[in-house]
């Protein structure tokens, strides 16, 4: 029956195309819209919402008045991109302006947003979280055994060794996902590691009707999705390395968790309608954790596809990890500052890629380098060129190592490197006190960056030698680098402009020079002009930090199946490390390696510590009602809130701008106020005892200059496990704070000395505002 119908439809389709041929103007003006509908007014005659949406589209179609009813119905089904089930009450469709206007007058129409492209969060292409076989969290969670991590990304390269299913548990009986066949992808390519593979591109194709999809399947032709998914849950691969850098056994954070890939980012572009459809499907399929290393800057919550789609995920108890973005180090640049997800900043590892220079006098000096060409060269003449600015002189040097100094910031350094690398010399040694050098060392030209002190040794040698020369060895990996972690400069900073009431980012995870799986047929770099291929690649970005946190969430989900997503987030936040491996406060690389400690607007509560998060003592729980109360306290209309929550009614009888969040942000930003005016900011929190039954906690607050912080009561005595107790925190300060950002920490410590439950407190004079960016 279906087949016959298709033949009929096919004929109608031809008519339709003929018709369109004469109305290319309206076709060229079509755009994709995500349309929210009020399900409560759906007429009873419809079997379900899908039929209702089709009928609504048929009635507004531009061809409705011209063709027969079946033409209109067929046109409607070609206009409808997706009927959403969980994440949105509504659908997405490709509409002309007049169709959109007609739709706005249809019964049940609430609102619509125009489609947007969304980008993944990797910057430059160039285990350290305490996870060892002995670590409590791997033991308690059995390495994330049986948890399903879904990723919305560029796809998966199923042949990667990181997706081998050796030692993997059976696919969960509750799993409803699929391994969809497509171009160069059969359903037999999935296994007990990669258990789901689906792809979404209807929205992209509707927006670019002439586009050719080069790989119409879940197969990854970019590499990003293979990298992020293996970071979260890759299986063990022995002998992994990147041309000798970072050698060892590779594994994801939750090596026994399953991976489900939802490809919605394409080489040809992306569409929010596809991303929402991917998340909708992941919810239907039954993922436990979602890792979303993408986002869109400058959107209010009610227009942000990630915010809309993840509210339903949270309601279904799915933990969502997202990337903060790579627009740092300027404040209020982060995206995904959404109250019901985890927002992850990127930090450095304690690992450095080096070259070792050995001078003619035998002295060896290490400097950062990430050169992929020859692994060494010996006894090359070395010359000192000071500023390396005169391109004419540089060209005449020939096959020598050139030493440059005087670069104090990224512009100087990139000028020097450009001059030297275009001069056909053997190698360049750059002396600088600038330490945010990650973006300069990933290079097809041998760049070695050394400190001022080592630089002086090199210059002294050159000046005192008749025929100075040096040898170099590349591809050295140094572990145990101090200090680490540090906040990367690219990691986007809080506060969240889309929801300033909630302190973001939440946490930091490794996102700098991360080694993970890579498609073998996608070049990772060039050696001279020859493409280089590898099964692993080293990438940086909050895209790389997000799946680390998703992996940790998978371990916690397994160890504590009864915890809500907010409880898991709370455990990660309140147990994060605030000190680095020198036992100093974590630093921010920020603008040229500031010596100041990183603030919570840079790193959230600190570096995620999976073993501590397993047993946090207390948790700050939040449920969907609490998020709605928060939305009610902002300036969203009830309809806008319904768009976010996907609910057909909103109870705003009890608004609250005070979410039970494990961190605090207070604004002292009232400009034009009398200078002696002080204001009081008040926060109420409720903690649940998930540690020992009987226990008591005492509060302490680190001093914050110019502010009075008070906790009432400052003792909490629990009699039973799961008991909830409340307290109030107040911050009194000037109406307009002098400092942009002042911060401290509230610590609840138990009398047994076992638990330290730490919450960051930020006081700021900033007024984050949404600035829309492409
Ligand atoms: C799509 O292709 C048609 C036919 O080749 C052409 O007329 C039209 O301009 C193209 N549209 C775009 C947006 O490139
Ligand atoms: C991509 O594959 C799907 C499913 O196999 C198919 O329905 C669709 O028409 C294909 N799209 C393109 C552009 O080839
Ligand atoms: C790059 O090419 C050189 C020869 O020109 C070779 O010695 C070196 O091993 C190559 N590097 C890689 C990573 O293949
Ligand atoms: C070399 O340095 C000079 C002076 O800083 C600069 O003007 C020029 O653009 C540089 N050339 C290259 C190729 O970077
Ligand atoms: C670069 O230097 C090598 C020898 O060091 C020489 O053979 C080659 O021709 C030079 N290339 C250019 C573009 O000057
Ligand atoms: C680097 O040295 C220059 C010149 O001495 C100085 O102005 C600058 O502040 C230094 N930068 C850092 C990050 O130490
Ligand atoms: C959320 O928690 C509050 C108490 O904090 C409770 O009153 C409310 O019923 C809960 N809502 C849901 C949906 O569980
Ligand atoms: C809500 O709107 C009022 C009046 O327009 C404004 O004063 C207030 O700052 C707004 N609040 C937020 C959270 O945007
Ligand atoms: C603040 O300053 C104004 C003007 O200097 C003064 O009239 C007022 O009494 C002061 N208020 C307080 C609370 O000190």
From TrEMBL:
Domain Subtilisin-like protease fibronectin type-III residue range list: 658-762
Family: Belongs to the peptidase S8 family.
Compartments reported by the entry: Secreted
Name of protein: Uncharacterized protein
Active site, renumbered: 153 (charge relay system), 224 (charge relay system), 543 (charge relay system)
Keywords per UniProt: Glycoprotein, Hydrolase, Protease, Secreted, Serine protease, Signal
Signal peptide range in chain numbering: 1-28
GO biological process per UniProt: proteolysis; response to symbiotic bacterium
Residues of the Peptidase S8/S53 domain: 144-581
GO cellular component entries: extracellular region
Domain Inhibitor I9: 32-119
Originating species: Salix dunnii
GO MF: serine-type endopeptidase activity
């Amino acid at each position: 029956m279906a087949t016959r119908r298709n033949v009929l439809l096919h004929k109608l389709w031809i008519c339709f195309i003929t018709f369109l041929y004469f109305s290319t103007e309206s076709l060229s003006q079509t755009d994709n819209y995500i349309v929210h509908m009020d399900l409560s007014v759906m007429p009873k005659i419809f079997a379900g919402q899908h039929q209702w949406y089709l009928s609504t589209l048929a009635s507004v179609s531009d061809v409705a008045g011209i063709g027969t009813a079946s033409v209109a119905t067929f046109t409607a089904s070609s206009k409808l991109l997706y009927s959403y089930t969980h994440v949105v009450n509504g659908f997405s469709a490709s509409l002309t302006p007049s169709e959109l206007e007609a739709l706005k007058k249809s019964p049940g129409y609430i609102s619509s947003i125009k489609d947007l492209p969304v980008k993944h969060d990797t910057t430059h292409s160039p285990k350290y979280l305490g996870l060892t076989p002995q670590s409590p969290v791997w033991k308690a969670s059995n390495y994330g055994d049986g948890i399903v991590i879904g990723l919305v990304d560029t796809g998966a390269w199923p042949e990667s060794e990181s997706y081998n299913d050796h030692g993997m548990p059976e696919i969960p009986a509750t799993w409803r996902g699929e391994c969809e066949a497509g171009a160069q992808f059969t359903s037999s390519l999935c296994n007990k590691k990669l258990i789901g593979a689906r792809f979404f591109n209807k929205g992209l194709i509707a927006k670019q009707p002439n586009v050719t999809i080069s790989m119409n399947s879940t197969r990854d032709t970019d590499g990003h999705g293979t990298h992020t998914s293996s970071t979260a849950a890759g299986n063990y691969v022995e002998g992994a390395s990147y041309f000798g850098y970072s050698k060892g056994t590779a594994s994801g954070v939750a090596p026994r968790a399953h991976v489900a890939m939802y490809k919605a980012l394409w080489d040809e572009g992306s569409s929010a309608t596809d991303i929402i459809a991917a998340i909708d499907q992941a919810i239907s399929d039954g993922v436990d954790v979602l890792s979303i290393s993408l986002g869109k800057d400058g959107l209010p919550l009610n227009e942000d596809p990630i915010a809309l789609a993840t509210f339903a995920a949270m309601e279904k108890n799915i933990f969502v990890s997202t990337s903060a973005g790579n627009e740092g180090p300027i404040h209020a640049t982060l995206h995904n500052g959404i109250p019901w997800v985890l927002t992850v900043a990127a930090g450095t590892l304690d690992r450095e890629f080096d070259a070792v220079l050995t001078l003619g006098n035998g002295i060896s000096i290490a400097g950062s380098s990430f050169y992929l060409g020859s692994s060494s060269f010996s006894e090359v003449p070395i010359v000192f060129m000071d500023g390396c600015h005169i391109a004419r002189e540089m060209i005449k040097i020939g096959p020598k190592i050139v030493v440059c100094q005087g670069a104090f910031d990224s512009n100087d350094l990139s000028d020097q490197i450009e001059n030297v690398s275009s001069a056909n010399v053997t190698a360049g040694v750059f002396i600088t006190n600038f330490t945010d050098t990650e973006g300069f060392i990933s290079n097809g030209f041998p760049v070695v960056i050394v400190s001022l002190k080592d630089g002086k040794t090199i210059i002294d040698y050159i000046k005192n030698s008749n025929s100075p020369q040096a040898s170099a060895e590349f591809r050295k990996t140094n572990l145990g680098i101090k200090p680490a972690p540090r906040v990367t400069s690219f990691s986007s900073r809080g506060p969240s402009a889309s929801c300033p009431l909630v302190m973001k980012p939440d946490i930091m995870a490794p996102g700098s020079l991360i080694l993970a799986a890579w498609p073998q047929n996608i070049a990772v770099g060039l050696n001279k002009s020859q493409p280089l291929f590898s099964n692993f690649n080293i990438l940086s970005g909050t895209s790389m930090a997000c799946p680390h946190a998703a992996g940790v969430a998978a371990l916690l989900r397994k160890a504590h199946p009864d915890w809500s997503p907010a409880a898991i987030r709370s455990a990660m936040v309140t147990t994060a490390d605030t000190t680095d491996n020198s036992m100093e406060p974590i630093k921010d690389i920020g603008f040229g390696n500031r010596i100041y400690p990183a603030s919570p607007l840079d790193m959230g509560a600190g570096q995620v510590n999976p073993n501590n998060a397993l047993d946090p003592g207390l948790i700050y729980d939040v449920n969907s009602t609490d998020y709605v109360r928060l939305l009610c306290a902002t300036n969203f209309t009830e309809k806008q809130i319904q768009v976010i929550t996907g609910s057909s009614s909103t109870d705003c009888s009890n608004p609250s701008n005070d979410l039970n969040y494990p961190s605090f942000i207070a604004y002292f930003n009232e400009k034009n106020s009398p200078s002696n005016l002080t204001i009081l900011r008040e926060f109420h929190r409720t903690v649940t005892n998930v540690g020992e039954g009987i226990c008591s906690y005492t509060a302490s607050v680190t001093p914050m200059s110019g502010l009075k912080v008070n906790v009432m009561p400052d003792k909490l005595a629990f009699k039973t496990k799961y008991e909830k107790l409340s307290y109030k925190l107040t911050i009194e300060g000037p109406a307009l704070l002098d400092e942009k950002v002042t911060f401290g920490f509230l610590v609840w410590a138990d009398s047994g000395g076992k638990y330290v439950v730490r919450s960051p407190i930020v006081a700021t004079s900033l007024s984050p505002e949404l600035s829309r960016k492409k």
